[in-house]
């Protein structure tokens, strides 16, 4: 039995290629003689696609670091690096996105915020190229294809929707604020003060108190409400 040095999968004796695409040499496969395949044999073109640094840039542009991290994690899974590495990459993307949102909320809108976004895009693209660039080049040299930029855009849009939902939950607690009651529903005899918005109820009570003290303007407003 032969263990693949790339993905650690156990392969049967004499196997020339692992399922991950790694090409065993003739010596490691246990073959000798003139009929043995060359030690420089190449694996067939991989069936999977990978996202390059341009795709990571697109996903980050729409979905912040989380979008780019998802693409890098997908590459890790397809390269056989394991789910743990992929999950950790997404976690780092989540934390980085949270920090970016915090900084942007504290910074004045304008050139400072735009410069921060530009730095994040550049860093994420350079980081993706540094950690996976060689694997992607090897993938392409074996005939492998790159994933579509449209797919990267879709993942970035999904990350953007997730970020927007997270911000909404954080700032509103997940509660939808009720709409203000219609003006026709503000009659004091029909709607209890307890059911009104706090500010509207306070204004109505003040108006009624002024009317009871003989304020003609208040009495006129109360008359309009009763109509």
Structure, explained:
- This protein is mainly alpha-helical and 227 residues long.
- It folds into three domains: 38 residues, no CATH class; 124 residues, no CATH class; 44 residues, no CATH class.
- Helix content is 58%, strand content 4%.
- It has six helices and four strands.
- A two-stranded antiparallel sheet has the order 1-2.
- Strand 1 and strand 2 form a beta hairpin.
- Helix 1 packs across helix 4.
- The termini are far apart.
- 20% of the residues are buried.
- About 10% of the residues have low confidence.
Number of domains: 3
Which structural category fits the helices and strands?
A: mainly alpha
Radius of gyration, taken over Cα atoms and rounded to an integer in Å: 32 Å
Element string (H = helix, E = strand) = EEEHHHEHHH
Sheet with the most strands, sense and barrel status: 2 strands, antiparallel
Q: Approximately how much helix is present in the residues?
A: 55-70%
Tally of DSSP helical segments: 6
For the biggest β-sheet, the strand order reads 1-2
List descriptors:
6 helices, 3 domains, two-stranded parallel ribbon, 4% strand, mainly alpha, elongated, two-stranded antiparallel sheet, 4 strands, 227 residues
Topology at a glance:
Elements: E1 2-3, E2 10-11, E3 49-50, H1 53-78, H2 83-106, H3 111-141, E4 145-146, H4 149-172, H5 198-212, H6 216-226
Helix pairs in contact: 1-2, 1-3, 1-4, 5-6
Structure summary:
This protein is mainly alpha-helical and 227 residues long. 58% of the residues lie in helices and 4% in strands.
